[in-house]
């Protein structure tokens, strides 16, 4: 029979040994780094917000699978997802919640008004904010040291769009001379239209009319009828997804056939949902916009994975994927998730691990100097890059019809 005192002593020794072992197990588990993901997951822009979240989650999964943040002992990225609800006021409120959650930085925003409000709110806490899409150049012109835009703004995109349009028109013998501008009446669309009104005449184009529409819009019949009456050679739309799909389908139904639809920063022309659901309306539509590098193996693997999961591919995915990787790279170089150190590391970025057709990531006053847009065109049921030549995977079809 076992002596009860000896038994108690043995049990006590076991508990003591377990107590000694437990701290070693706990110390072996690196702390997580919280990263805020702010997207419009409900409201008019919910589709774009969901695409952004898909990209961010894919990047975090890839980073964690590869061992996490090595400089922090393999710390994993933990995404804290917030819903901007497609409006600036809600976005600012969500920043307060992310601040309370203790996130090291915030990525996302999508729409320019959301990015403006959210980055301003984040600045109160010196919280680094990486803009994924928001194209208004006001975002980087306020002197906020916490704000970094990875993608190009509308000034650069519009300049590139006009250069490439002039090149296309020249190569085709200048078949297009007249233009109708169609734009959403918010910050991004109105800003683009104003810039286009100034710059298009310098390239030899006559603007017949500029037509604004609200977002959301339920009907585009009047816009299409006005285009029909003006009979422009080109239609240049700058709209979000739903509005451009409605316009393109209405134009198709009414047999309005300009020599080209040349979109700039369009919410649908660079989205496979539009191409797959409305192939006739999408055919040959061009866009100057964000897009992944079609020759990047990591980008192609991600695209394949997203499509195999039953989701549509659009530029929001590779942009947010790249933005999360950018932040992870900055944390690695800073050796810390401290906000001040992380802001310094972002400002000193020389990041190349993205999947965009960009050069080296270098921020000047918060704008990535390595960013650039590309021109795409819907050909068949695919979206092809036609400019710049070094990343293009197709030749442009222009003019289309008329």
From TrEMBL:
Membrane spanning stretches: none
GO biological process: amino acid transport
Chain ranges of the Leucine-binding protein domain: 33-374
InterPro entries with a match to the protein in the record: BCAA_transport (IPR051010), Leu-bd (IPR028081), Peripla_BP_I (IPR028082)
One protein family per Pfam: Peripla_BP_6
Gene3D superfamilies in alphabetical order: 3.40.50.2300
Keywords: Amino-acid transport, Signal, Transport
Family as reported in the entry's similarity comment: Belongs to the leucine-binding protein family.
Record PANTHER family: ABC TRANSPORTER SUBSTRATE-BINDING PROTEIN, LEUCINE-SPECIFIC-BINDING PROTEIN
Stated name of the protein: ABC transporter substrate-binding protein
Organism of origin: Teichococcus wenyumeiae
């Amino acid at each position: 029979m076992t002596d009860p005192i000896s038994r108690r002593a043995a049990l006590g020794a076991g508990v003591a040994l377990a107590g000694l072992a437990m701290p070693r197990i706990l110390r072996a588990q690196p702390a997580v780094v919280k990263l805020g993901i702010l997207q419009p997951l409900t409201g008019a822009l919910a589709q774009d917000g969901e695409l952004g979240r898909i990209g961010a989650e894919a990047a975090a999964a890839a980073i964690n699978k590869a061992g996490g943040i090595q400089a922090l002992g393999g710390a994993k990225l933990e995404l804290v997802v917030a819903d901007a609800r497609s409006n600036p006021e809600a976005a600012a409120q969500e920043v307060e919640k992310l601040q309370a959650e203790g996130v090291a930085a915030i990525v996302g925003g999508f729409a320019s008004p959301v990015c403006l409000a959210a980055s301003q709110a984040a600045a109160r806490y010196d919280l680094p904010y990486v803009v994924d899409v928001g194209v208004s150049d006001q975002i980087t012109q306020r002197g906020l040291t916490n704000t970094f835009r990875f993608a190009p703004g509308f000034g650069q995109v519009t300049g590139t769009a006009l250069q490439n349009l002039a090149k296309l028109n020249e190569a085709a013998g200048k078949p297009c001379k007249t233009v109708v501008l169609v734009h959403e009446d918010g910050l991004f669309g109105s800003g683009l239209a104003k810039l286009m009104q100034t710059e298009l005449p310098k390239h030899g184009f006559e603007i017949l009319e500029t037509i604004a529409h609200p977002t959301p819009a339920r009907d585009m019949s009047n816009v299409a009828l006005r285009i029909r009456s003006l009979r422009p050679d080109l239609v240049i739309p700058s709209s979000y997804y739903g509005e451009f799909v409605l316009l393109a389908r209405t134009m198709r139904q009414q047999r309005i056939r300009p020599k080209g639809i040349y979109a700039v920063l369009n919410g649908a022309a660079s989205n496979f949902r539009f191409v797959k659901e409305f192939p006739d309306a999408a055919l040959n539509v061009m866009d100057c916009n964000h897009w992944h590098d079609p020759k990047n193996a990591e980008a192609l693997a991600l695209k394949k994975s997203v499509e195999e999961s039953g989701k549509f591919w659009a530029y929001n995915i590779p942009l947010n994927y790249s933005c999360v990787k950018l932040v992870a790279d900055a944390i690695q170089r800073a050796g810390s998730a401290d906000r001040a150190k992380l802001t310094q590391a972002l400002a000193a970025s020389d990041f190349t691990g993205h999947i965009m057709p960009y050069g080296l990531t270098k921020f000047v006053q918060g704008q990535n100097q390595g960013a650039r847009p590309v021109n795409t065109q819907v050909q068949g049921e695919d979206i092809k890059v036609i400019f710049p030549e070094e990343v293009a995977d197709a030749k442009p079809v222009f003019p289309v019809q008329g």
